[in-house]
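In full, the data:

***
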Amino acid sequence: MDFLTLLIILTSVLYLLKKQEQRRNTQLLAQQLGRFQIEKLMGSLMEGYLRAVGEQDLQRRAQVWTVLESTESSLVSQFQRFADEFAQLPPEQTRVSTLPLALPYMDKLFPAATMDVRAAMQLHAKAVAAAAMRDGMDDEERKRQAFTMTAELMLMQHTCHWFCKSRTVASMRLIARHKTSYEQVLQSVAANTRQAYQQLAGIRS
């Protein structure tokens, strides 16, 4: 067997093993999220923020903010419940590699270079709760909170895609879906989120 043939076989095996691993993680996350309406609430919030910011009539804008507060409350509650349930999963099922190479079983071969997605989801749950609008905010404060909340949700979505595929694929999906880079999102979340996330994911600031 020549070297090229061996390389092709090895590459094919690694590809199949990685696809199997990704399929397992995707199914696991889908099962956990299936009991909630998190994705639907996220979509409603992001669309609502754009509508509120673009609304010229102050009274109508205030009405939109009021509706969004209720949506935020539902999202905060549901995502915390999801994060708590996800935290009950075995640790060996919820770790992802922080290494740049998207190869199978990297989390098991190099356990020190991994991120516990259970901890990441708890971090996102706290960040989303902190970014929610509060009583007494004026219009400008609500806009700033909406911007921060959008970034927090994008970072959480990135973690989900990272768990299902890889960090590279997750970053590409951010650009494709939201026209926003991973680095931009990290700079737009709350400072506490960014610091804790970078530490958890092994990212140097």
